Amino acid sequence: MMPTTTRIWRRTVTALAVAVLATTACSDNADGTAEPTGANGEPNERGVSSDLPYSGAPSVRDPIGIDTARYESSPCRTLDDDLLAQAGFTYNETEASTTNQGDPICHWKTDHGGVFGVTVMLSNEHGLSGIYANHEDGGLEVFEELEPVNGYPAVAADQVDSRHRGTCTVAVGVRDDLTISAYFSAGAGDDVPYNDTPCERAHELAEVVVATLDGES
Fold it and tell me: Long-range pairs for 89-98 at CB < 8 Å and ≥24 separation?
């Protein structure tokens, strides 16, 4: 059973470069208005196709069979308590909310002053392709292809490199048009657990997310 939010806690969290995954494949006209990419496989002026995937992003060969609607109202369901405990994740508070793009997000506050979170990027219809395109355009300080998460392609991606502060985000493509982000921040101090390995820990969190969603498929 997923945890019940006991009280809302306020904290500024740079969850998965929400702006990163909110990137859409649009170009700017001279008048400043956005122009969508070409449809039906026609390339836009950047030379990429609107067909998914593009920009070198891997194809999701076995898409996950989840109904994302259930997570819109209950984003904290993306992590199962028992699976979290098995992976060594502990927390004392949770907060469910939405991003500026309207995506469901849940934060878990840790005993060490850190936080981890999960965002279902419903507003990003380009999935991992949006991240790869952003990387091509030089919009990311962090971009690293990682080992797949239970067969789903994954990358560490962020607009600002905060790994030296114990912070990292991993994006997992569960469908060509759907990405789920797992964010981990170790907390303050050099001696807090996983401060030196935030991307590895974020990847482990992503594994818990996928195991939870697979269990609910």
Answer: 89/116, 89/205, 89/208, 91/3, 91/116, 93/5, 93/6, 93/7, 93/9, 94/3, 94/5, 94/6, 95/5, 95/8, 95/9, 96/5
| 123-175 residue pLDDT tens | 889 999 999 999 999 999 999 999 999 999 999 999 999 999 999 999 999 99
Residue 9 C-beta-side C-alpha neighbours within 13 Å:
17
What's the angle, vertex CA 124, arms to CA 43 and CA 110, rounded to 5? 145
Residues in the chain: 217
Handedness of CA 65, 42, 45, 56 (dihedral sign): positive
CA distance 115 to 119: 13
Q: How far apart are CA 58 and CA 10, in angstroms?
A: 36
- For residue range 177-199, what is the model confidence (pLDDT) as tens digits? 999 999 999 988 777 889 999 99
Of 174, 137, 172, 136, the residue nearest 155 (C-alpha): 172
Residue 46 tokens read as: 């950047």
- Residues forming a β-bridge with 93: 109
Any residues with CB less than 8 A from the CB of 120 and at least 6 apart, and which?
A: 68, 71, 72, 75, 78, 103, 104, 105, 178, 180
From CA 34, how far away is CA 37, in angstroms rounded?
A: 10
**168 bridge partner residues:** 184
